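User: Is it possible to get a 3D structure for a protein together with its bound compound? The compound here is glutamic acid. I've pasted both below.
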Amino acid sequence: MANQSVLENAQFNYERAARLLEGEIDPLLLDKMRHPKERIEISLTPQLHDGKAHFFDAFVVRHSIALGPAKGGIRIRPAMTLDDITGLAMEMTWKCALIGVPFGGGKSGIVADPEQFSAYDKETLIRSFARNAVRHISPLVYVPAPDMGTNERDMGYIKDTLSWSAGHATTMGCYVTGKPVILGGIPGRREATGRGVTVCVIEALAQIGRTVEGAGAILQGFGNVGSVTAKSLAERGARILGVADLHGAVYNERGLDVLALEAHAAKAGTVKGFPEASAIDRGELLEVPCDVLIPAAAESQITAQNAPRVSARLIAEGANGPTTPKADEILAARGIPIIPDILCNAGGVFVSYLEYTQETQQEQMSESEVRTRLQQRITERFHQVRLLAERRKISMRDAAMLHAVKTVAQALEARGQLP
Ligand code: GLU
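Assistant: Yes, that's possible. Here is the predicted structure of the complex:
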């Protein structure tokens, strides 16, 4: 059976939560949450280095604005549809509600291959997006952040384009998060998602009677989320047994030297060929026995096909939507717990919120303050979700969804019925 799309998976998870909440929430509110608020398609025609105009499709989706302005990253990927962005925006609605920040859910995307661009062309493309989406980006409407294919630098270009278009040196309030610190970004935002994953992993290991010292971890993805997670887990004594990226995978049962691997990947553009490890098939790595498997790359990576062979004691979803609903079912039957994405990778958007408040109030926060608040919030929500899962005898994904959907419903209820 073909895997379902990102949107279908997001809808599936939502419908499960909606069923569990039947009788508790007004069906009209459940229906409101089912439907995305706004889906925008934009056509970009930047003039690139060759002097010619090139066409790119771009999307901005605001799934919900019940709790506040839509929040969520901007991704650049070669194959992506408005529906994919809608599914991801829906996930952001639940993530923001669960982690307790006053944001709705949004996402944006540009259909292009980020690896094909020179630095000049990438900057031109991002600026073209910011100019064309100017009506849709504001602290009160939608606030983008880094996601797949975009980084801190790109967020700086977005801020610059928006302030420059208005003839100002800066923006009034926070239009984009994950910016360079020198432009009003917050220290520790880049590391936030990975650090949040690590907090979840440590708490989840404790639940199965394991400490992080000596625990064996396998990661899929060595980008911003994967590499920071690997480093912070290794700092706490975990053994990083294997790492996969788009080009290949490496394995060392004694544990990889993560800093050396990072230096290798920075030079080679991939973990492949790292000398202090053996090469392994990317798919096979996901099935190697370990304490924790961390899919931190793309969606739909753990599927009905490989779930029966996953040999991890738990799964921590660093990426958005890496486990399909079918795989969820198989893993549940096999007793392998999953820390769901909307909890596990929520550290990023939580620290985006700190950046938003810092900029709004024209304050400055130190990195240690950011780290402490991140650690506290993720730990608190992890245990809230765990307790709810235990009480209702449901998975952590269902418990996280239940909490999130209820929170958004409360906001809708408080806003009243008139549009
Ligand atoms: N792109 C990240 C996510 O999927 C961060 C979003 C944000 O900070 O707005 O959670």
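The longest strand covers residues 56-64. The domain at 190-344 is CATH 3.40.50.720 (Rossmann fold).
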